[in-house]
Automatic annotation (TrEMBL):
PROSITE patterns for this protein: GGDEF (PS50887)
Name under which the protein is recorded: Diguanylate cyclase/phosphodiesterase (GGDEF & EAL domains) with PAS/PAC sensor(S)
Pfam families (alphabetical): GGDEF
InterPro entries xref list: DGC-Regulatory_Protein, GGDEF_dom, Nucleotide_cyclase, Rev_trsase/Diguanyl_cyclase
Location of the GGDEF domain: 169-301
Residues forming coiled coils: none
């Protein structure tokens, strides 16, 4: 079927009527990228939230919209484009991707699904998954600091150790806490204590690489999972990180000198399973605090 014939789908009243009943934002896209039909949910969202790149009209070229994406949307748009082309070419049976869409009033999350139709055409469906995303975030995020919670930390650490075992890489578990946090919390109140925890979590996210997971395990105890090809430079890097973490905190018009302790345990050097590795890193943190050295690896004398 030619692209001109496929554009005739836009005049197919029964098909249009069926698609208009769907809550998802649906378009039919031809093999050349031309949008031949959109449903009412697609058009309504476009009218109400103009500017979201995926909401384009009939006869627009979806490929070109993806190629023009800039900023934070660029990588997701490129992935969507490649996924769509793979489905059109038969290399994939289906493609899906979750992405963020910033409207004039809020940040929404969508899941785009590309399904083959005929003659290289596809159905592109965008389902609003914002509520599901919020529930997932609540299940895996510490509500005070916004970093991962213990549940997500354990899941991620389990996967990181399995991947390291397959690839011959190493993983460092780093546990951190604030010396003197209880004194600040007791003397200045929970509001200041909470503000200190939030600031500490933000610093931890800043010193560790994107892709590493920082989590709050409870109280003032935090942990990070670092995937490493080698550990030669880890000690020097953590010493630099510690200097930044130990800088004074300016909170509520006051300055607080609160120091950080870091404990480190390595997979597979110190243990080959997560539970015992957590015991190792906890012991290393205890050593760092007891000796007042700021940083200790498991097994340090």
């Amino acid at each position: 079927m030619t692209e001109d014939a496929e554009l005739g789908l836009g005049r197919n009243a029964p098909l249009q009527a069926v698609l208009d009943t769907l809550p998802e934002h649906v378009a039919i896209v031809t093999g050349g990228g031309t949008v031949s039909l959109v449903n009412e949910a697609w058009r309504r969202f476009g009218r109400e939230n103009g500017g979201c790149p995926e909401h384009i009209g009939v006869a627009s070229n979806y490929f070109e919209v993806c190629q023009r994406a800039t900023g934070s949307a660029r990588s997701e748009a490129r992935a969507a484009l490649h996924g769509m082309q793979a489905v059109m070419g038969g290399a994939l049976p289906q493609f899906s991707l979750e992405y963020a869409c910033k409207t004039p009033t809020e940040l929404l999350w969508f899941k785009v699904t590309v399904t083959p139709l005929f003659s290289g055409s596809v159905i592109v469906s965008h389902a609003n998954v914002s509520e599901q995303k919020r529930y997932v975030d609540m299940a895996y995020t510490d509500p005070l600091t916004g970093v991962a919670n213990r549940r997500l930390f354990m899941d991620f650490a389990t996967q990181a150790l399995a991947a390291a075992a397959r690839n011959g890489h190493q993983v460092a578990l780093v546990m951190a806490d604030l010396n003197g946090f209880k004194g600040v919390n007791d003397s200045y109140g929970h509001d200041v204590g909470d503000a200190l925890l939030v600031a500490f979590a933000e610093r931890l996210r800043g010193v560790f690489r994107r892709g590493d997971v920082v989590a709050r395990l409870g109280g003032d105890e935090f942990a990070a999972v670092l995937s490493l090809r080698n550990t030669a430079a880890l000690n020097d890097a953590l010493i630099r990180d510690l200097r930044h973490l130990n800088e004074p905190y300016a909170l509520r018009g006051r300055t607080f000198e609160v120091k950080t302790s870091l404990g480190v345990a390595l997979f597979p050097r110190h243990s080959g399973d997560l539970r015992s590795l957590l015991r190792c890193v906890d012991a290393a943190l205890y050593q760092a605090k007891r000796r007042g050295v700021g940083l200790a690896f498991y097994g340090d004398a």
